[in-house]
């Protein structure tokens, strides 16, 4: 990291610390580790043809040139997992991804931290957590056309006034 200016080095390390803080709560019990492992492995496997040109040729030569073609896996992690677990999904693929220029270690660390924080933020964005389902026109129409059941005798048939 000597070729990187000091401010950029500090920014990379601060982003890595933020990524570790985002992923830290995943160590608590209740994290769906099988789902995390499956999505992380899928993202890492999808990044391998990008890194290995020979593997890209074996798979038909259709390997993408740039990384980031598999962000839908991270989006699926943001929808399916808790925020801290979703932040962990990006790390293996980002560390295995192809880096064009030196210093490769710093660039991989930056990419892993950046994607981890972005996936965590995507999960914590507005409307992603603890929000009630929106009232769509379809649900309103279903509620309007549903047969109503009387809750008591007075709501169905009011008694005639006494004489």
From TrEMBL:
Residue ranges of the TM segments: 81-99
Region: Disordered, residue numbers: 121-163
Alphabetical UniProt keywords: Membrane, Transmembrane, Transmembrane helix
Organism: Streptomyces hebeiensis
Low complexity bias (residue ranges): 147-157
Keyword Membrane: yes
Keyword Membrane: yes
Protein name: Metal-dependent phosphohydrolase
